[in-house]
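User: Reviewer 2 asked us to show a designed sequence for the structure in our supplementary figure. I'm pasting the structure tokens here. Could you produce the per-position amino acids so we can include them in the response letter?
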């Protein structure tokens, strides 16, 4: 889950060699482990915060260069 806060999507992480399928992840792994569910939720929150910061930076830079 360390890649989620860095901006990776679950789809990209699971596409890496040796990873399980998305179906297995969401139907078996995630529902079966409460601690993992909390870790996953926290990683998603951190990733979303990083994406929000990036979106704001892009918008700010566009405003600066447009006038």
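Assistant: Here is a per-position design you can include in the supplement:
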């Amino acid at each position: 889950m360390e890649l989620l806060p860095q901006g990776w999507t679950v789809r990209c992480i699971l596409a890496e060699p040796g990873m399980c399928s998305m179906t297995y992840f969401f139907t078996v792994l995630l529902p079966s482990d409460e601690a993992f569910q909390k870790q996953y939720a926290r990683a998603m929150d951190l990733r979303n915060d990083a994406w929000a910061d990036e979106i704001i930076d892009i918008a700010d830079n566009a405003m600066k260069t447009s006038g």
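For the response letter, you might also mention the following. The CA atoms of residues 57 and 63 lie 10 Å apart. Residues 4-66 form one domain.
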